[in-house]
Design a protein that fits this description.
With about 280 residues, the protein is of the alpha/beta class. It contains five helices and 17 strands.
């Protein structure tokens, strides 16, 4: 992962009280430095300027609890497969589905640690024993009897729940052991009623708890953003139903993590699609 740069996102759609409005989002390094409707002239000199032409709806990126090496456990049973490649494949699948802050609990935490360091990927790794290393870019956490602790924030076991058991007390979505990381499709299967759509906020509660973001895009949050193109059928999105897009089964078209453009309009730029065979 290369060093982040200044990025200007132009004509991005976000919801407001009356519908959608077009805004710019200005990213400096790994943070959202500014956003609004009138673009300051100096922002046009950013290293990367992307114009979304009022066709893309932006949300903050998602967070979920995952285990990477178990995602392809059946494949790992056959032949000699490098588990680092399985970790890379699982990360790619997470990113493709908009999970920009994976919270990783894995039996092979040393392998995951090495991959995160190689990719300089700013995930959260829950370690059996916290290893101090100044070169680490990932956030460290610990397993405990009461739950998962990250930067002195405790996610209790009864606050961690799978897609089929969402309730108002859930603070962390658990994707471990599931057949897919398609968060949108998984949320569509838990029978959330229209009046319970706020349960989808579980996607952003870890960000809020860790002081890294919120359920809407705001200044000074880490620049984790997912964008969906909504101007072509069947993605028929209105102000009344825009959050339903998050349980429609569609992955985002663009994914930005900590100021890095990982996927741009369905084209992977940093982490390439995996090619894993059992032999």
């Amino acid at each position: 992962m290369s060093s982040a740069i200044r990025i200007l996102l132009k004509n991005v759609l976000v919801p407001d009280n009356e519908g959608f409005k077009k805004i710019y989002i200005y990213i400096d390094n790994d943070r959202i430095a500014d956003l609004g409707e009138e673009i300051p002239v100096e922002y046009e000199f950013a290293e990367l300027v992307l114009d979304y032409n009022g066709e893309y709806l932006a949300f903050p990126g998602f967070s979920a609890l995952v285990s990477l090496t178990e995602r392809y456990r059946d494949i790992a049973m056959y032949g000699s497969i490098d588990k680092k490649e399985l970790v890379r494949a699982a990360l790619y699948e997470l990113i493709m589905n908009g999970v920009t802050l994976p919270i990783i609990v894995d039996d092979e935490d040393s392998i995951v640690r090495n991959v995160l360091k190689e990719l300089e990927f700013p995930a959260v790794l829950i370690e059996k024993e916290v290893v101090m290393d100044q070169k680490d870019v990932y956030i460290k956490g610990k397993l405990g009897d009461n739950g998962i602790s990250i930067n002195n924030v405790l996610f209790r076991w009864n606050e961690i729940c799978g897609p089929n058991k969402l309730n108002d007390s859930c603070k962390l979505l658990d994707l471990r052991g599931l057949h897919t990381y398609n968060v949108s499709a998984l949320l569509s299967r838990n029978n959330i009623e229209p009046e319970d759509v706020e349960l989808i906020n579980v996607l952003w509660r870890p960000y809020k708890a860790l002081g890294m973001g919120d359920c809407r895009i705001v200044k000074d949050m880490r620049a984790d953003i997912v964008l969906y193109r909504i101007t072509i059928p069947p993605k028929l999105v209105t102000h009344r139903n825009y959050r339903d897009l998050l349980r429609s089964g569609y992955p985002p078209d663009t994914v930005i993590i900590a100021g890095e453009l990982f996927i741009d309009k369905n084209e992977p730029l940093i982490l390439q699609p995996p090619r894993i065979t059992p032999w």
